[in-house]
Amino acid sequence: MLTPLVFALVCLLPGLPLALLLARHRPGRTHVGLLIVEGLLLGLAWYLLVGLVLAHRQDLGVTEILLPTLVLDVVALGLLVVGPARRWTGVIDRTRPGLLAGVVAVAFVVGAALRTKPAYFLYDIGDFGEYVNRGNVLADGGQFTQWFTQGFSVLLALSHVALGAAHEVDVMGFLGLLIMAVALAIATRLGASPLARVVLAVVFAIGVVPVWFSNFPASETPYALMGLALVLFLVTAVQTRHVPTAVVGGVVFAFLLMLLRGNAVLLLPVLVAVLLVSAPFVGRQAFRVLAAFTASATAGLYIGFVYNARYNHPYFIDFQMPQFLPDQVWHKFADVGHLTPALWKGAVLAVVMAALFAAAHLVNRWVNARGDDPWVRRARAAVLPVAFMLGVLALVWPLDAGGLLEGLGHYDGAVQALIVIGVVGAFIAFAGRLDDHVRIAIVFLALVAEAFALLHAYRFDAPRYAPYFLYWDRYLWSDFFPAAMILAALGIGVIESGWRRVGVGRLGTGAVVAVVAVGGVASLWSAGAVARQHRFMGDAYGTLEQVSALTAGMPVVYSGILPEDVPKAMHHPNTYRMFAQPLAETFGRKVYGIDQLSPTGADPRPTMAKLVEGMRTEGLTKVAFVEVVTPNRMPLASAALPSALSVRTLGTVSISVPMLDRPKWRQPTAWRIANFRLAVREVVLR
Q1: Which residues of the chain, if any, have pLDDT below 70?
Q2: E strands of 607-644, at which residues?
Q3: Residue 470: which region, alpha, beta or left (left: phi > 0; alpha: psi -120 to 50)?
Q4: DSSP 3-state helix, strand, coil percentages of the chain (rounded to 5)?
């Protein structure tokens, strides 16, 4: 449970001075809790950016990371000392914590306890195994892969450097708790009531979706965090009328979003929509901050797009973009990784964005010149619900939205109720008198939630089997779930206002709150009961570490099994990727597989005669021969020994792999255990 605290302290080392620099130049005071959250986000962003540079240089180490960090601290502290004279009492709000802080602290402790055993997806049988193993490769000075986007692997590599290879995935629990902290910080900035913030804390602490994705190494979790960071810096900038906060938040976190997942390209039209929808209903100063944020975030997204097109073209451009963009748009940007096309396409994008900004500016100026006319109030009450419903009718109605309904159906009843409260409450609140930063936040969160729910409906038009629990739900988790829950916090405020007008006494109110609280917590807790029964994939690192230790530094020759012998729980046809590939990538072993002993991605079963031939060809006199002996209906390769070989059994390793899948909609799910036994033998060529 102390691991998140270690990551927090490490992130605050560079992040807190940067947060203080921003806060010192902002009007008004920043509560110390909000300042810490900003520091954690800026610190994490700093390490990701530094880690990216160092990983490209194949020089990712503790010293290499700390040296630029300490230089940053010296520079930042120097600026804080010699900067504009302003008393620190006017910068930091140190209001004493009350009962709310105690309840939230308990939620954090419970949330941390549920995040102590993240799944070490070491068996390379899916995208997640690729991320995990590539993170270990990067930490050990290896090269980038040209396939997946690189941000998540860099983050895992940083965790490896900080805590060691055995704890590479421990960063997931920290990310989950930081998501909870940022969501609460946004709700606080938006003026959510204490009750609403408690509800938010409980949902993120024990809800099955936040807990699962705090323990499952999916890139959607850091993506969700960076998306919330984008919202927090926007809200803070508009509330304090501070353009530098908007610029820093927009450029940094939009770039990191693109570095983590390809679907960040869809944030661009959402950002433009937020600007256009908000323009008629916010003040001149708020609009200027929003425009600066939108321009900065657009620049960050574009830089990230060019980076991904340059370094991950096969995955990002050839594979991902056709799934997100219409063919006509995709072909316009397909070669954006080359410098010359990127320049003119960037210029075209800049011109289009400038025209949209100018139009929004004229609308904002014209409306503000006329004051708070009745028609403005009526339009304000209608525009967001109308925009939301038009989007639903235009995009969901022609599609079979079964996949979206399935995803929403996986949420427990308490979360489903909060989603409804959030949507209805946001529309009601938007129709009234709101501060500009709250109005912009509602537009942003509502449009993000809608846009990515519709993307889910487009990509997954029907319920389908999932090889891992909540597998398809990760696309809704990253953008929809956090936005919907923050809107729910605002919706609870609307309900509280209406409840006070009813005039129910304190005793009645307390009784209702108690009943709803007990029911809601019970619903949240029971929904995650299945996921808590086992640790997904068990002790993957520990078991393969035993295999690596038994091979004692020798070259490894691997022998697999027939695809039909692989336990169905593994959802993968060969055992080479389960065991041999992690030995090569995470443990740095030289692994051979096919008859000629060349490295392979197949599932080899070399005979002893072929082993002799291969060892002679490769000039090997001694190897560690690793066989999957159970389950295996094929005769063991070591059954008939050529006279040229001397074989000695070094030991066996029993591997138990708990797996949790997700059958089709509304079918029961349960754990299945895949059991293997590996034999390690020392083979000497006489």
Answers
A1: 1, 83-90, 97, 146, 327-328, 333-335, 337-341, 371-372, 376-377, 379-381, 384, 387-400, 503-504, 594-602, 638, 665-666
A2: 622-630
A3: left
A4: 65, 10, 25
Give the pLDDT of residue 89. 56
Q: How far apart are CA 86 and CA 517, in angstroms?
A: 45
End-to-end alpha carbon distance in the chain: 52
How far apart are alpha carbons 336 and 349 in whole angstroms?
A: 12
DSSP sequence for 199-258: HHHHHHHH-HHHHHHHHS--THHHHHHHHHHHHHHHHHHHHHT-HHHHHHHHHHHHHHHH
| Residue 595, pLDDT score | 46
Q: What are phi and psi of 320, to 5 degrees?
A: -80, -50
pLDDT of residue 35: 93
Q: Tokens representing 492?
A: 């609870």
Cα–Cα distance for residue pair 80/76, rounded to 1 Å: 6
Q: Report the C-alpha gap between 649 and 677 in whole angstroms.
A: 14
- Tokens matching residue 57: 């240089």
What letter would DSSP give residue 578?
I
* pTM given for the model: 0.93
DSSP state of 281: G
Cα three-residue angle 358-360-364, rounded to 5 degrees:
115
Report the distance separating Cα 302 and Cα 308, nearest Å: 10
Q: Which of 674, 255, 213, 229 is nearest to 471 (CA)?
A: 213
Q: Which helix (H) or strand (E) holds 545?
A: helix 540-551
| Closest by Cα among 147, 126, 135, 455 to 317 | 147
Nearby residues of 620 by Cβ (< 8 Å), 6 or more positions away: 555, 597, 614, 685
pLDDT digits (tens, 9 = 90+) for 562-599: 888 899 899 888 888 899 999 999 999 999 874 445 54
CA-nearest of 481, 515, 514 to 200 is 481
Largest CA distance in the chain: 97
- What burial letters (b/e) apply to 139-161, b meaning 16+ CB within 10 Å? bbebebbeebbbbbbbbbbbbbb
Confidence at residue 337, expressed as pLDDT on a 0 to 100 scale: 66
The answer to whether 39 touches 15, Cβ cutoff 8 Å, is yes
Among positive and negative, which fits the CA dihedral 198, 199, 204, 207? positive
Return the sign of the alpha-carbon dihedral for residues 129, 135, 141, 142.
Answer: positive
Q: Which of 300, 282, 146, 164 is nearest to 233 (CA)?
A: 300
